[in-house]
Design brief:
Blueprint (H helix, E strand, L loop, with lengths): L3 E4 L11 E4 L15 E3 L3 H9 L6 E6 L5 E2 L4 E8 L14 E6 L5 E3 L6 E3 L5 E10 L12 E8 L14 E6 L2 E3 L4 E8 L4 H6 L8 E7 L2 E5 L5 E4 L4 E11 L11 E8 L6 H7 L40 H9 L33 E2 L19 H17 L47 E2 L7 H4 L30 H13 L2
Parallel strand pairs: 5-11, 13-19
Antiparallel strand pairs: 1-2, 3-17, 4-6, 6-9, 7-8, 7-10, 10-11, 12-14, 14-17, 15-16, 15-18, 18-19, 20-21
Helix pairs in contact: 5-7
Length: about 500
């Protein structure tokens, strides 16, 4: 007795093959045992989403064309009505509850919008059949009563093609179809007019015929005895062909239109479409819940912002090394604050303020150590012989006098001839003393100035006309109470002493 091995795939989880042995009189042909294909549990995300759709029992009907209607054109607009199931496609994931519409025995068309008719163009003359049923977002069919509808219509005339016998069972192939990017791959179909398998097995002598579905994948076959979707793995990359057949309890095909169908599919691992990512477990049920609930909005995790401490003082901005170097190179120059007039000390020189010219007047001479006003004297005219020795002595005194012994002279200078003498300061640039800031001169303490002798040309060459303006001008008064200020003898005073000594016999 020959034994026939039949694969009995169950819906239980795991990758272990379910295989059963049945008597030889069950089938007249030997069914090869599949060594590559195995059934596995549905992906976890699909199991969780499936429970959310258990509350629906969709009721599907075809509005147009009507059953057995003869149309006078080969373009058909098909309209559907679905109750108790929202039909939509999620914009982000491009999946959602929809309808599988099969014209004759062609691959199904997915319909996600019931407001627009499905247009079937360029139909051939003759008889055509429409089969439609509700489907879940991952293309698993609803199998409740009323979820399936069928309509046979004719274009111009009736023919014997595509006209199933309503008294016989009808097998509608659904999945697999098209391209896949991940395993497991869904195998699903729809049955019409098929008796319950368990009822047919109760009494072998009754007239209720038993049935099975034979599936062949790439030449290897197995038998399914339950009407439910299964998830299979073991497909090879590239082209795979799948065949579904409706057979009776003796293993003979039940002859009816559409009861034997073959599809060609593509399997390319690592696909990035939504369904492939769901199957691989890359997307959770919470992430894609909007494909089963049109009103669901994915929760965006909200992170509490970290409180920023309020600074009690102004923040310190650290300078970069380049900025520090630039700051060190910049001279410190006061921009707005006026520089106070410095106090004269021994060995320093002060710039004499510029005073407009007035009428010439003799400058009084001030003897060292005297604060009283000295009497003004006018030297008598001298001859050339008397002036020559005096000029020689004056020149020798000028040569012997060092620059450090010369202090600022209380003379009136022209602004265009006098060189500017500025006080050096390490912290600021030279600041010109303004006439308004100078202290008011004390006319009683002004020294007398020796004027050049107009009758003595030899002596006059040592006097510059620019150094002796025609009018006196105030000069800074030295502090009287400072014991540290020692006024060195001026050149003019020395010249005056020399002149006085020449006049004495």
């Amino acid at each position: 007795m020959a034994l026939v091995l039949v694969i009995n795939l169950t819906s239980c989880g795991g990758e272990e093959k379910a295989v059963s042995q049945e008597p030889s009189n069950t089938f007249q042909e030997k069914v090869p045992l599949s060594r590559q294909i195995s059934e596995v549990s549905p992906p976890a995300t699909i199991q969780e989403l499936r429970q959310l759709l258990e509350v629906y029992e969709p009721q599907v009907s075809i509005l147009t064309p009507k059953q057995d209607e003869i149309l006078q054109e080969n373009v058909v607009n098909v309209r559907f009505q679905v109750k108790d199931l929202p039909i939509f496609k999620d914009k982000e994931w491009e999946l959602g509850p929809h309808l599988h519409v099969i014209l004759d025995n062609e691959p199904y068309i997915a319909v996600y919008d019931l407001d627009q008719p499905l247009v079937l163009p360029d139909l051939s003359p003759g008889t055509h059949s429409l089969r439609v049923f509700a489907s879940r977002p991952w293309h698993e069919s609803f199998k409740n009563e009323g979820a399936y509808a069928q309509s046979t219509f004719h274009v111009f005339t009736k023919t014997d093609d595509n006209n199933p016998d309503p008294a016989l069972p009808v097998l509608t192939y659904s999945r697999p179809k098209g391209s896949y990017g991940a395993e497991p791959i869904l195998l699903d179909f729809y049955l019409t007019n098929a008796p319950l398998h368990l009822v047919a097995q109760e009494n072998p002598d009754d007239q209720v015929a038993d049935w099975r579905i034979r599936c062949t994948i790439n030449g290897e076959s197995f038998v399914l005895d339950r009407w439910q979707a299964v998830h299979l793995k073991g497909f090879k990359p590239g082209k795979n062909w799948v065949k579904l057949e409706f057979i009776d309890e003796q293993g003979n095909p039940v002859k009816n239109v559409f009861n034997s169908t073959v599809r060609l599919i593509d399997y390319e691992p690592k696909g990035q479409d939504t369904l492939s990512r769901i199957v691989r477990g890359e997307l959770t049920a919470d992430q894609v819940r909007s494909i089963v609930d049109p009103n669901y909005t994915a929760k965006i995790p909200v992170t509490e912002p970290t409180p920023t401490p309020i600074p009690t003082s102004e923040p310190t901005i650290e300078e970069t090394p380049q900025e520090k170097a630039l700051e060190e190179e910049k001279p410190l120059v006061p921009e707005t604050e006026p520089v106070p007039s410095p106090t004269l000390t021994p060995g320093t020189q002060e710039k004499t303020p510029l005073v407009p010219e007035t009428e010439p007047a003799p400058s009084p001479a001030l003897t060292p150590g005297s604060t009283e006003k000295a009497p003004e004297t006018q030297p008598a005219p001298k001859t050339d012989s008397e002036q020559a020795p005096q000029a020689q002595r004056f020149q020798s005194q000028l040569d012997e006098t060092s620059p450090d012994e010369i202090t600022s002279q209380p003379t009136l200078n022209e602004p265009t001839t006098l060189p500017e003498i500025v006080i050096e300061s390490p912290a600021s640039e030279p600041t010109e003393l303004q006439p308004e800031a100078m202290p008011k001169a004390d006319t009683e303490t002004l020294p007398k100035k020796l004027a050049p002798d107009p009758d003595n040309p030899e002596l006059n060459k040592y006097f510059s006309p620019e150094q002796y303006p025609t009018s006196p001008a105030p000069s800074p008064t030295l502090p009287e109470t400072s014991p540290d200020v020692i006024e060195p003898p001026s050149v003019l005073e020395t010249l005056e002493d020399a002149t006085t000594s020449d006049e004495q016999p």
